[in-house]
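for the writeup, i need someone to sanity check this before i put it in the appendix. the sequnce is what the collaborator sent (i think, or maybe the updated version? ugh). structure was predicted straight from it, no edits. if anything looks off just tell me and ill rerun, i have time this weekend
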Amino acid sequence: MKYWILTLTFYCFLHQADAQVDTTYLKALYDRCLDFSEDKADSMLYYANLIKRESDRMKFIKGDVLSLRLKGIFEELNSNYTSAIEFYLESLDAARKLSDVAYEKAALSDLAIAYATIKEPSKAKSFYLQAARISKGNGDIYDLVNTYNNLAVIYTQLKQFDSARILLNDAIRFGKPFGQEVDLSSTYNNLGNLYTLEKNFDQALVYFRRNLAQHQGGENPGDLWVDLLNLADVYSELRRFDSATKYVDAAMKLAKDLESKSKEADTYGILAKLKEYQGDYRTAYKHLKRWYTLDTALLNGDTYKTIAELQERYHAKEREVANQLLQEQVEKESLRTRIATILAIGLAVIGILIAIAFITKRNANRKLKSTNELIVQQNEKLAELNYEKNSLISIVSHDLSTPFTTIQVWGHVLQSEPGQLSEDQQRAISKMMQASNNGEAMIRRILDVERKDIGGHRMLLENFDLTIFTEEVIDNFRPMAAKKNIQLHAEGPGKELYLLSDKQLVARICENLLSNAIKYTPKGKNVWVSVSEDQDAINIKVRDEGVGIEKDELPYLFSKYSKISSMPTDGETSTGLGLSIVKRIVQEINGKIFCESEPGKGSLFTVVLKK
């Protein structure tokens, strides 16, 4: 009731005492609206329109920036990201016309947050970096901490965990000396999420509990909802189901009280995970379907298309302004040229030669400028195509993973009632589950090739014996080799040979090379795996008696999706991805890979790793 009294009082003041309203009151009202929680979104729209109306009346030049930003925040609170981004872009344009860096930075931050919310981290990173350039060197600790915190979220979404951790720790280091003047709860929340992704749940709980204690009884229920959902997620991973249920139920109640579809969707996602871990697959499926329905309603293909159109309209507007400035420059240049021509005629031969030289140089500059503009346009087009490709991959991973998850959930449901199924039906369900797992693995493998990092793998160094390691890898492939009557041989130095590296990545290298060797080797032949040391390096070699590779195809062997003329000897499939992945992994652990081959005589792959 106190909130409504305050609203009505201010409204009456504005309309009964127009003569006393000035820009200071409008700015104070704008600042107050920024502190509104999600349940006060309608009031924010009301005040945004009021600020616009009063600013037009008083000719307050900053009124458009303030009003447009509040409208964008209103649309974002209601999950209307298309409209929100449109208002933020207009606010950014208005701020730049005023040359007001503070409002320009606010608009850039708003755009970055909106793009991060709709799972476009690369675009969000671009806007945050623009904001960071403005913030650099301004001496505002709150601004610095906020910028570091936001950038860390984007780096986390991009799986660049080490960069995110550095930024978050720097934010705490700069902000802590200022006590309550700088609120670090968002930083602690992001550190908790980072530790959750790294499976360090005990450390994550430290930060999530600290924020819960701070936000309980506070004025912003949105922050409290985040704390409750984070704790529910971590307790689910720890299989502490009573605690997880307590927090997820509280989060769902709060999301519905706030009438937030986005928060309700995220809560259903955690509920689905919790029920799956408890073995209640039917309920998990219901929650999963509810999450997917809400999530897809909030963000679908039309939304992406509309946002792209908004972005293009904004850039078109920027280009229009740039063209106007260029036209003015051309007109001024033409005027100077006419004056120079008149003067040149009066100055005889020397003046004429100077004018000719000037015109020649100007034409050369115009040609160079035209060439540079064409190169810039081509680069922009390539960047757009690459962005569309990455967006498509993100959509594929989001939309295709859901049906595979649904198949697995129903498969678990059917397998949990074995007494009602025949042996053939049980076998069919097993085949269905295997096909679903293969489908998910295919999606992960495509993403594995497209991402710059190796599937988000975090490097874990350990010192292991390569001789024992090689024998274990070969043993895993003996059943595959036995089907083709291929003999596998291990060759070593006859002593312990230790390597300090990431064992999992080295295993992936060997498994890919050994699998290929068996595929391309005819029945009854041999495959060798050998390890040796050479001064400060380790050599891993895989040699076969297979079909070999043509000499002119060797330079393209490690290219992504490469297809060579050599074919597997027993009808096996090949996607052309394996050797591309191998080369990327070898480079990741600071190694090199070579291939020697001759058609009909087999191939030799050599991997050189530093000790």
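The domain at 221-299 is CATH 1.25.40.10 (Serine Threonine Protein Phosphatase 5, Tetratricopeptide repeat). The two ends are 71 Å apart (CA to CA).
thx in advance!!
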